[in-house]
Amino acid sequence: MSRRKRFKSNKIKPRHEPGRPPGSLDSGEGTPSQFSVIAYGEHEAKKLTPQSLSEVKKLESQYEVIWLDIIGVEDVRMLEEFGRLFGIHPLSLEDVSNVHQRAKFDNYETYSYFVTRMASRNNHLQSEQLSIFHQGKFIITFQEVAGDCLAPLRKRILAGQGYIRKRPADYLLYALVDTVLDHYFPIVDQIGEQLDELDGNLIESNRSFDLAQVHQIRSELLELGRWIRPNREMINQLLRDETSTMSKETQVFMRDCYDHVVRLYESIETYREVCSDLRAYHLSVVSNRTNDVMKTLTIVSSIFIPLGFVAGLYGMNFQHMPELQWKYGYFFVLALMIAIVSGLLFWFKRKGWFDD
Amino acid sequence: MSRRKRFKSNKIKPRHEPGRPPGSLDSGEGTPSQFSVIAYGEHEAKKLTPQSLSEVKKLESQYEVIWLDIIGVEDVRMLEEFGRLFGIHPLSLEDVSNVHQRAKFDNYETYSYFVTRMASRNNHLQSEQLSIFHQGKFIITFQEVAGDCLAPLRKRILAGQGYIRKRPADYLLYALVDTVLDHYFPIVDQIGEQLDELDGNLIESNRSFDLAQVHQIRSELLELGRWIRPNREMINQLLRDETSTMSKETQVFMRDCYDHVVRLYESIETYREVCSDLRAYHLSVVSNRTNDVMKTLTIVSSIFIPLGFVAGLYGMNFQHMPELQWKYGYFFVLALMIAIVSGLLFWFKRKGWFDD
Amino acid sequence: MSRRKRFKSNKIKPRHEPGRPPGSLDSGEGTPSQFSVIAYGEHEAKKLTPQSLSEVKKLESQYEVIWLDIIGVEDVRMLEEFGRLFGIHPLSLEDVSNVHQRAKFDNYETYSYFVTRMASRNNHLQSEQLSIFHQGKFIITFQEVAGDCLAPLRKRILAGQGYIRKRPADYLLYALVDTVLDHYFPIVDQIGEQLDELDGNLIESNRSFDLAQVHQIRSELLELGRWIRPNREMINQLLRDETSTMSKETQVFMRDCYDHVVRLYESIETYREVCSDLRAYHLSVVSNRTNDVMKTLTIVSSIFIPLGFVAGLYGMNFQHMPELQWKYGYFFVLALMIAIVSGLLFWFKRKGWFDD
Amino acid sequence: MSRRKRFKSNKIKPRHEPGRPPGSLDSGEGTPSQFSVIAYGEHEAKKLTPQSLSEVKKLESQYEVIWLDIIGVEDVRMLEEFGRLFGIHPLSLEDVSNVHQRAKFDNYETYSYFVTRMASRNNHLQSEQLSIFHQGKFIITFQEVAGDCLAPLRKRILAGQGYIRKRPADYLLYALVDTVLDHYFPIVDQIGEQLDELDGNLIESNRSFDLAQVHQIRSELLELGRWIRPNREMINQLLRDETSTMSKETQVFMRDCYDHVVRLYESIETYREVCSDLRAYHLSVVSNRTNDVMKTLTIVSSIFIPLGFVAGLYGMNFQHMPELQWKYGYFFVLALMIAIVSGLLFWFKRKGWFDD
Amino acid sequence: MSRRKRFKSNKIKPRHEPGRPPGSLDSGEGTPSQFSVIAYGEHEAKKLTPQSLSEVKKLESQYEVIWLDIIGVEDVRMLEEFGRLFGIHPLSLEDVSNVHQRAKFDNYETYSYFVTRMASRNNHLQSEQLSIFHQGKFIITFQEVAGDCLAPLRKRILAGQGYIRKRPADYLLYALVDTVLDHYFPIVDQIGEQLDELDGNLIESNRSFDLAQVHQIRSELLELGRWIRPNREMINQLLRDETSTMSKETQVFMRDCYDHVVRLYESIETYREVCSDLRAYHLSVVSNRTNDVMKTLTIVSSIFIPLGFVAGLYGMNFQHMPELQWKYGYFFVLALMIAIVSGLLFWFKRKGWFDD
Description:
Beta Polymerase, domain 2
């Protein structure tokens, strides 16, 4: 049942009904978005729950980095206010509210805009779009629904673990992307373990091999690959962007992140190959087994159908059947039958049908 | 029946019978083309139905942007007049009248020429070539037949929605391309849903899986990919063209449009993979099922054919068959039969034929 | 029978027996070549049949463009004379006489050399190498045998249709390449129609699907692709060649020709995919059908073989078989048989074997 | 059993639980690492077992090259001290302790960092990560566990074979990478021999072909390819790095090493193709054999089932069956049976079922 | 039997046991190598059999080009002397003695080094490594064993055919590479003819199709492709090498040689596709045929097994079977049987099982 939603839930959608002006937002009011802010400097970090965007804007003078996390992307009025306050291009706003974007990096003059995708896998694969804006001290993230994989990052900032509090906003940007991509590893790892088990089942017992699971895992890997691949381009583009405001130091970390994405993508590709191999191997195994079954049937039939015919022959009720009166007729027929069986068995043996 | 027209309707055709001079138009008169004009500036927009091309030409001084939409590409005299009036190269005119072009962008010195393809899918996939000329204030579009996907755009211009009335002709050009490509999304989306359903059918009930539909969808995706792919090159080429007269502002929108094309193309590729996977999975399922059927047959035959032989043996009419006179002969034979059956069942069980 | 020649006729051959000096021609005399000349300027065009090459050379001062068409490439003495008169590199001459070249463009200092391939398809696919030399006012073409696809071009020159008479020799070069490539369109188109029909046959009636034809078409497409692909490189190389003497104006036409080659190649690739899809689909259909046949066999056998055994059981001739004396024994057995049949039918139904 | 561990043992792992600060090491103490040093100059080479890293650092003034080999990467305190003493970036330290890296080359300002992978194959494929730091005179290697493939290299240094003692540290770096990659050759060679044997088995006797082994070898090649491929990029990047401190002379050797990697990777790719071909060939062979088995069954059944029916017909006990009273009825029926058999045999022959 | 050696004989080998110093030669003495020299200038060419390398070195002043051909690469002392006399890098010497190199071109400051591979095909595919050194007037070739494909070239030099005597050593280098590659053409051609025949067999008679041969040819093409591909890179690299001492004139010939390699490689790729197609087509044909066989079996069984049951029913020996006493019982049963047969035949017909 959950499977039936697989493609549907990930389907690509037009930004809006085709033909509407670009950069226009859906007019429906939508659920109001929720704000939460983590503002910090080297010596201080605070969690705030502002009521309005302008309130957030005022924090700029007090902190080194202000991370505004907005949950819900359907609140058009909020989006428009956000666009006004931070000078965001309508196309970016539209991309925020249309949650079917590929990962990408758009460098506008006054801000940078990133889209990536947070994945999770409980029973089935799910993903949520994460939009990140970077403008001076501000990092603004947009999520579709509450609940994300960023909790450890928040804890790190508030507890002052690692370097994060000592570095500017672009490091937080890196940390966000890195944390999101890190969460793909356990998913891919889990798939690897499932494939390992399936492979073992197929080789060892030939029994409970679940072809449908291979099929499903392959579909999931297709999906995962589609989510991961554009991230590679995104980070690459970011690293080569000459107008980028990202510090050299953060670029070293970002390059590390790039290595991770490449590693992820290679694993996904490898596992897709493994799925194909399993499928091909299974087909061969089934063909082999069908061949065995057929051989059994053919041996049994080839022996007993002719014998049955001979028996039937002497079960006929003709009045004039000389053999029936012979004294040793019956034993003669039995001997004939044994001869037929021996001959057939010898022939099958020579054909190699008993060698398995 | 409609299927039989699939390839035929999309077949590539020589521009003309091979060997005719390039840039020459078919001499047949063809149906006269119909004109309709939308001319607009920031404060005004008007829909006109001019009788001749020279009439249109005169609108240049009055409006900021003049969009001339021409329906019907077989009217040779009109095409020649159009070429004369706007200074169009014969090769472009030929491309307009030959409706089997790939999407492309040709930059001539005095004008730019675009070809793209409008798709629709009611029962089966159809497409129509849209040629777009851009020259100064003029945007001239050529369609094969009446009826298109541009209605919302016309409404937007006439109603003054969005930015379109405030921007020059190159923005209208963008809006045309964008609207055309936007209409691919619902088609691809619909295919995704069909695949989703097919996948569900195959996994869950194993019953009404329609292999022919997978085959047809795969053909349609092949076709769609062939239409979409050159659009990617076209926009890319347009964005990198240094002599382009497209304003920086419109280029931002065009880049957004490029992202859409990439997204479309990736979805098409993904769905083609899904089709292949479904096909491969179906083959495995059928092999599996054939194996099951064969096992059933083999078990039944291997048990009852030998039994039948034994029964036939004692149905023979030889006069001297000592067993027939034995008092418990019949019961002995019955016991023998039960022993054979038990032995065979045990052997099949050990072979794992009952484990499913 | 004609099929057996397929690969053989297209086989690649060493330029000569391996190890002979490069640029050396086969010493055999070969059939004498035939010359025909079309010489023209803006106001005049004449068809001539010169007896010797030096005669042709003298036409240079009289006409704007001289097209010398030579049929037969085995006349060594003529080739050597040609090389002397026009200053042709021995490697080019060797390429002319070895008719298994890929399409290519070699730019020598004093002349350009083109190789392309004229295709035709009557029952089976055939091709002929066309070598084109361009030197100043001269265009010299070499064909293997008489009969080609250039008749419409000749007519155009002689009748003065289109621009061709007004343009220099490089335009004729373009016209030759364009005419040759144009003749691939009807071939590819015809293949498309055949595939369309095969596809319809497979989907609709499942009856007369001709697998061998798919196999053959796929081979032909492989061949066609091998002929077309290098043309793409050839034209591309020509367009990017900075030392080229081709006029800007002709380059516009050549770019149009490039578009056609790309379109051709894409169609060929698409049709090869269609062939693969047909093959895969056919395999699935056959598997499905085999499964159906097997189910029928298994149902019939599983029902009647056990029944036959029961009947055989009571056909045994033991003297002491109590059931035989029972008054209602026969009817009891009949009832038992009906019960067996019902049970089996119910079981098959539950297994879903009747659902198709 | 060992197979079940295949994918699991090679699974990719997140650097740490997702969300922890980058460059942080696992806090667990881990087993203490073991040091061993080989320090040498042109005239002297010594093997030492220092107790601490600072002891090693002091050797700098005495020798030309100091190779510190560290076994065990879980000793966090040691790693931190190492980072402090040699000025290593936390990300590099993290890569050392996380043993699931792809081969790579990171050029930091004060040192270079290499990761590669040592492979071995006893029953199943295994690999171990080797991290190499190069800083001035120091080469520091990190291995996961004791036991490696570097013994011949150590012997060469201590015995003063070849050039190694006369060259600076970057030559040792090359020698390490080269030795590691050299050990892939016997593995790939062994796989080649196994494939050779499998291929022979399949073609010649059709008997003991082990499909599971092909499946396993293919998986191993997938794994090997995944390990080798990034080495190619690594060496390439090293050779093109303009800031590299590698001497021209060593670069010549490194290029040789690059050739080896390319050769390895090509062999792996080739063998993967061979696996696919074996799989496909096996499937065809099985299909062929199933077809043969079916033909046997069909011939036998088609002959004897009808005969059996005829015999059964005259075994019926109707009182009024005129044929039974005929004098030559029995012989007539025998003749009929022979006629049926002959007819069927002739029909099968014409269908080509006996031609193998 | 010869097949079993296929992969083994081509296996890749480590340059030496892993871990030995690079550039070191195997210490075994090996068979002494044999020298033969062809030295020539425009007016003179001489074949010599020198006893030592220093003798060869002295020829430098007397001739324009000196081609030293050395047979046997295991003579370590000779190789070392060669290295000393001509100033060859140890890595090159090692590559000479390790006969499993890919084709390559190494440009050292004082000499160029080429590796290529001479192929032959008598029953099975074989190859031999040819190393070529070019230094000033000297061309030195190393072969593994006596017997090669260079005889025509030697004859050409000695007889003074073609241009070769008039040109410097780099032309001889070209001639060597060209001659070696030319010898691939008849091999590929022969394979093409075999495929042609196989294809014909499969399509026409469906009889003696040799699947194993397709499998073997495919393996050979894999091998050939592996030998040819690096030659393409080698020549390409040579042509683009700016420090190359190759004259412009020879480069024209080398480019021609490049065209040949491309043509070869394309043919190999095409034939590999043909093999795949044959394999796929064969699989479909076998599936089709199995389906036919099954239909025959099913039709026969479905008709006669039920009939046999009916016959068996009235062969039972119950005392009270009223039908047996009916006067026309027998004829009634016969009629029933005819009805059953007609019904089944009609049903099969409607299912389309008789349409082939």
